[in-house]
Amino acid sequence: MSGYRRSEPAFCRGCGKPWTPGADACAACGEAMLVAPVAGGDPRAVPKAKAVLLAVSIVVAVRWLAFAFVDDWTSLGGQLAWHGLGGIACAVVVLSAPAWLPGGMRWPRLTAAPRHWLVAAAGGAGLAFVLGQYGSGPWDSILTLTPASVWTGDGTGWIAVVLGGIVAEELVFRGVLVDGLAPSAGLRNAAIASAMLYAVLTIHPALALLGIGAACLRVWSDSAGPGIVLRLAAATTWLAWLGGTV
Amino acid sequence: MLVCPKCQTHNPGTASYCEACGKSLERLREADDAIERALLQEARKGVWALGIVAVLQVGAVLIYGTDNWALWGIAGLFAALAVWAMKAPFIASAVGMAAFVLLHGAEAVIDPSSIYKGIIMKVVVVAVLAGAIRNGLKYREFRKERGKA
């Protein structure tokens, strides 16, 4: 904690003139009185940041390893394997965070104002539609690489891959990661970090764009909920209307 | 924070005069500002490491083909991290370190022979980023003590 004076100063810290007793600001230069001592901040902020960065790095490594060792990652089984393993790793991180995160963890906030939900749903569906319809090269590779393998069938794939993967991922990246980095880096920087690490996880420009969108929504709404809706809307658009996968 | 050399009162880092005795703290503050600038300069060394990774990545794109969008994406990511490290050296260097280690770790798992490719550059980048993270923390602590963070 800082050792700043809490009481009224005898002299102005700006101009050095004697302070008028009872005044809120210096009569000579207008310098305001330092009312409260500067907060020392959370002493566990840095250990918390290191812990969440390590946890997210493990999640990324698990998902990449699963991806690298799946024989046919475009098949439904392959998709379930690598999306599922990534989702399980995310779920483990979220559920175990209170045990290993210095200072414990509050559950990521999922509530938001109606306008946040609306923008998230419209933005996710719109982005997916535009990229699917008009994108070329890397932007539509999501559609051309794995056509409808997850959407076909009884919907088990959608529930396991889309819902499980997206919800678990968002709870880690826009929940645990942002909440863990915010005390040391600030909310905005924490959200930028989450978008960048999500880009490292996916290595795909379209998905990285969704990550940036979810990070913006996280800052705007102060909630992880709209990010989940954004990605669910995008995935549903790709799967149901355009015949792609997530 | 600035400790008055005359009365030992703790003053905010932005103070020009001691709040208790009125002594000028200008010279003390200038010295403190110089330390802060030096710490920031050290913390910003991560910018160079991240920038070099981005440039090398662009080189890899040109060698392996300009249509390799994954490599373009990685180059863009590190370029963005380098720019970000100017403003937020600690968090940008930490994210850069995580991304760098993860990317090369994945490459090593897929192709074990890649571990030794550019090993000196990899070690240098990791060492510079580790130093930048350490100095970023020092810079952050210094600013916090002065009541600026």
Summarize the entry for a quick read.
Chain A is mainly α and 246 residues long. Chain A contains 8 helices and no strands. The N terminus of chain A is likely disordered.
Radius of gyration of chain A: 23 Å
- Structurally, how many domains make up the residues of chain A? 2
- How many DSSP E strands of chain B? 2
Number of helical stretches of at least 4 residues of chain A: 8
**Gap from first CA to last CA of chain B:** 12 Å
Major sheet of chain B: order of its strands? 1-2
Biggest sheet record of chain A: none
Class from helix and strand fractions of chain B: mainly alpha
How is the biggest beta sheet of chain B arranged?
2 strands, antiparallel
SS strand fraction of chain A: under 5%
Query: Overall pLDDT of chain B, averaged?
Result: 86
Q: Which strand-content bin applies to the residues of chain B?
A: under 5%
Instruction: State the helical fraction of chain A.
Output: 55-70%
Question: Multimeric state of these chains?
Answer: heterodimer
Taken in chain order, the helices and strands of chain B follow as EEHHHHH
Uncertain segments of chain A are 1-5, 144-148
What is the strand and helix layout of this fold?
The complex is a heterodimer of chains A (246) and B (149).
Chain A: H1 45-69, H2 76-100, H3 114-134, H4 141-145, H5 156-185, H6 187-202, H7 205-221, H8 225-241
Helix pairs in contact in A: 1-2, 1-5, 2-5, 3-7, 3-8, 5-6, 5-8, 6-7, 7-8
Chain B: E1 2-3, E2 10-11, H1 26-43, H2 45-64, H3 69-87, H4 89-110, H5 119-145
Antiparallel strand pairs in B: 1-2
Helix pairs in contact in B: 1-5, 2-3, 2-5, 3-4, 4-5
Notes on the structure:
The complex is a heterodimer of chains A (246) and B (149). Chain A is an all-alpha fold and 246 residues long. Chain A has 2 domains: 1-35, no CATH class; 42-245, no CATH class. Chain A is built from 8 helices and no strands. In chain A, α5 packs antiparallel against α8 (225-241). Chain A is elongated, with a radius of gyration of 23 Å. Mean pLDDT of chain A is 79; it is low at 1-5 and 144-148. Chain B has 149 residues and is mainly alpha-helical. Chain B has helices spanning 26-43, 45-64, 69-87, 89-110, 119-145; strands spanning 2-3, 10-11. A two-stranded antiparallel sheet of chain B has the order 1-2. In chain B, 37% of the residues are buried. The model of chain B has no long low-confidence stretch (mean pLDDT 86). The chains are: A mainly alpha (246), B mainly alpha (149). At the A-B interface, α1, α5 and α6 of A face β2, α3, α4 and α5 of B.
